[in-house]
Amino acid sequence: MEVDHHIHIPGTTLFDGTQAMKGFALNKMCYSFNWKVNRDEYLADPEAYFTKYGLNEEQKNACRAKNVLAMIAAGGNIYYLAKFAGIYKLTVQDVGAQQTGMTTEEFKEKLRRAAD
To answer: Which helix (H) or strand (E) holds 25?
Structure first.
């Protein structure tokens, strides 16, 4: 009998071995953004960069939309995706807002209220 040790949280994508394999190309691409030369190459021609790293259509569409949740669903690991977010000056609050379905300002206000 197989035991499932994962906690299932509705709306949450668990990053496990399956997701890691699914997102290998996307995460490899995002890791490349550690170097400025690669960030510059990406910004000059994102489509060519997607092809260079072998992204599938789901991953390409998520990147085009700058949708971090869609990138996570496509196998992205948040630690690598932070490199992608940095290229577009997306803050942690911007990503948190995407994750909660709020605008960035609504999310910041929620954080302010929680701190009081």
So the answer is: helix 24-32
Question: What six digits make up the tokens of 15?
Answer: 């990053």
pLDDT tens, position by position, 55-94: 999 999 999 999 888 999 999 998 898 899 889 888 888 8
The structural domains of the chain, with segments of one domain joined by +, span: 17-115
Number of H helices, E strands in the chain: 9, 0
Q: Which CATH number fits domain 17-115: 3.30.830.10, 2.60.40.10, 3.20.20.70, 1.10.700.10?
A: 1.10.700.10
At 8, list the tokens.
Answer: 């299932």
Please tell me the pTM assigned to this model: 0.78
